[in-house]
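Input/output pair, single chain:
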Amino acid sequence: MVDRPTHQGSHELRPVSQLGILWITGGLFAIIILLELVSSADYVFSYLYIGPILLATLRLNSRFAFRLTLLASFLTLFNLWIPGSHIITPYTIANRIIAVAAIVVAGVLSHRNRYYEEAIAQQQTKLQLQEQLANFRENFVSTLTHDLKTPLLGAIETLDVFQQERFGRVTEAQQQVLATMMRSQQTSLQLVETVLDIYRNDAEGVKLTRSPVNLVELVEQVIYTLNDLASSYRVSIVLSTTAFITETCLVDGDYLQLHRVVSNLLINAIYHSRIDGRVDVILETWQDFESPQQVVKVLDEGLGIRPEELPQLFERFYQGCSDRQAKGSGLGLYLSRQIVEAHGGTIWAENRAPSGAVFGFRLPA
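Output:
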């Protein structure tokens, strides 16, 4: 059995061309003019001009629609004297003036409606272009950062081999240079991984591997990891806890993700502390909620935060006008917010007296 081709395309409605719209508009005007001429001036058919005027405004240019409006208004008043086989009364003149007013109002409103439609279409086009640009930028950044990981890892491995003196003896001065280069490469790698994680979290959400986490042990581990960085900036880190807190400061969370949050807050505090300054890490348990909350606060002695910057500190790529953001990329705090909120917690920042800032987060105990 052979299937016969169907001609569905022949039944589809095709849009009318501008020339077709001109013919339709002219035909409607001719019909209305004929009705006006064969009837008495007391019978007003001029309201029918509104139809072709609206059609011309929507499908043709505004200047042509404006001319049609003037023509319809003239023809409406012209019918008072043509064909001239009737007596003109004030009632007839009033009806014609009202008809002219209706035609003008309809023309103005249709023109304004077309203007709004064009403005909306332009805004939609801009939004689509911005969305395409944002998607392109995110894909480009994601691909670029992914490709950057390989050479960074290779450089770190090479520096590690040199530090272990596998290629020969390394002097103390050379070890210091290698250590500086190693920190720089590790910082770059951390930034690349942060960018990748942020785009992944925005697209898929933060993925957590939950287990009981002791925040005291976690903070101590982070401090130990950042001791060299703090020493290079001549900043001391002090952890304040109590015996009760040490035993009970547990949360159900992802150890590695929370490690990144504490690390980001501490690095932020180190970067913005004065020389020979001090960074305090305080762990507390709050009982102000329906369930206990474990709180981690990082206090520095820097310049503080401008009040207008506080609501935007945890936005992606935000870098404030003050010196507090001079070292950062605007990503660490945003990633920290993503992780804390994924744990059902809250992160915040505030100024402290007489100077400095407090960055903290709380999680359900």
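Residues 16-205 form one domain. Residues 1-13, 323-327 have pLDDT under 50 and may be disordered.
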